[in-house]
Amino acid sequence: MTDLKPFNSAIAVLPEKIKAYLFRADEKVKANATEIFISSNLVVFTTDKHIALTNLSSSDIAECFRAICGYSVHSHADDIKEGFITLTGGHRAGIYGTAVLDEHKNIKSVRDIAGISIRIAREIVGCADNLSFSSSRNLLVCGAPSSGKTTIVRDIVRKLTESFCKVSVVDSRGEIGASSGGIAQNTFGATVSVLTGYCKSDGVDIALRTLSPDVIVCDEIGSAADMTAIQDCGRCGVSVIATAHCGSFDDLLERENIAPLVGGVFKDIVVIEKYGRIKEQRCL
Q: For the CA atoms of 226, 231, 232, 238, what is the dihedral angle to 10 degrees?
């Protein structure tokens, strides 16, 4: 049976006018949709093509932006300056426009919203079945943006809990657990704690001090603070499963903060291609 739930969930917050255009798309398109792009055109991307549904005006884009913010733009100020808003269901709306900078040239807000890209989150039970991993070893799952890293990590968490492993998920962007009202909506076992919205360094520190996990899971590492937090896990005897952006193993070694951990902290490396296909797996 065609599963339209992820698509319908991703567009639920949009204005009725925009939803009407999207509902008219072919069911196969909706079932295979990976991204909805809202700019001068309304475009649906699938696993193998893109379909332009209609033209949009600047007022249409502005209305979509307000709707995604729950018509309370101010309450999402911190997310907006980071360039995204996480929606119920774990979908992520990337936002771009004109940056507003402070006196130190840091982004403090975004105005004149020019477009929104909604990445559709899907829970694919069993997608990590071909992956070799252990709760006693650190694992780094790498790939390009939208390659399926987070989808695979969700399934790894599910599989770990089947063996009664205690897992703490530091879900900075709210995408792994897709929490709503503090409750993870994805299929996790009873031994998983999800820390939603914490920066990785704070979340890891809290998990280590208060939750006694066997494994800590976090998404999209890259900063020096992330690396320090991950090294702290090793000192405490806790394993780490994390994701990082890169196109290949060689690209990973060019990542300034991550490279020193490859082969030391992270001995198991998996590089995936589009839609979660394993491109390369190394045990160092």
A: 110
